[in-house]
Amino acid sequence: MSAAAxxxxxxxxxxxxxxxxxxxxxxxxxxxxxxxxxxxxTALAASLGGPFTDAIDRILAxxxxxxxxxxxxxxxxARKIAATLASTGTPAxxxxxxxxxxxxxxxxxxxxxxxxxxxxxxxxxxxxIVGYAKxxxxxxxxxxxxxxxxxxxxxxxxxVLPQAQEACPLGLAPTTSTTMMMALGDALAIALLHxxxxxxxxxxxxxxxxxxxxxxxxxxxxxxxxxxxxLAGPQTPMSEALVEMSAKSxxxxxxxxxxxxxxxxxxxxxxxxxxxxxLMAKPAQSVMTSGPRTIRPDALAVEALSxxxxxxxRITCLFVTDQRGRPTGIVHVHDCLRAGVA
Length: 342
Prior knowledge:
Helices cover 45% and strands 15% of the residues. By secondary structure, the chain is of the alpha/beta class. It folds into two domains: 34-198, Rossmann fold (3-Layer(aba) Sandwich), CATH 3.40.50; 219-338, CBS-domain (Roll). The strands form three sheets. It has a five-stranded parallel β-sheet with strand order 2-1-3-4-5, with helices on both faces. Strands 6-7-8-9 form a four-stranded mixed β-sheet. Strands 10-11-12 form a three-stranded mixed β-sheet. The two termini are 59 Å apart. The relative contact order is 0.09.
């Protein structure tokens, strides 16, 4: 067979080999970074001890906020740590050390604590904010990679990163060090979350918007209440139960006993199964489906949607009941969809 007859894809070109080699080199370089940083994070976890719990205690003791500060790459990490603290129940915000020296020190109060980040521990721009904290007795927590440094010496609590090489092959660009700072900030935030007993409800209050907020909506946030509930007694003639069912527009009517407990439900499917000349005269109890699926008001809305979708055949409504089995609301699949729950 001539070379011309060989399919072109079977003739590897020098350029193709070069591209393949380069891709392999790129992946190896990236994997090396991740391995280096993973090793550092393992060492960081092993290094946690008294200073870490001391930092937690000092933050919990303040009445104000955690002021997180740093410059350069440490500053970018500090912004993220402040945001994570604030979103998990520990009020916090970032103050740029340069702006602090030009008036933003007024944002600090004696009720606050300062979390200062500097890998070298010798960042000149931090001098004013560190000095201000010491002057007014504001708790100062230092996060640094250098135990013998001005920041470590002046801090009330020093969190020292373990020695680890930067993932940058030049050993210059902050990579491993900033990863450890970021991870330690996350560790502080989550440890504080546990100590505060921060719950799903607390998290939902702080995240009302976006996908997180929608996922954390509770059934009680979207359910219909009071006079909107379609309800009838067990001996109610189906002629009256149908009027209630049509008036409330949920495609069903709940059947409640004398104590107000939900004992059954009449749906469009039940009507079709009992269709006949005597349907209108029958009592609701003889047509209803007993033991309908219900949900509690403090369940997540996504749970309600899952219950409706998982049922075979699928259902479009769920009654919401209290601990005694009395209906306090009703939620329709369209309520979930309108709220963005999916």
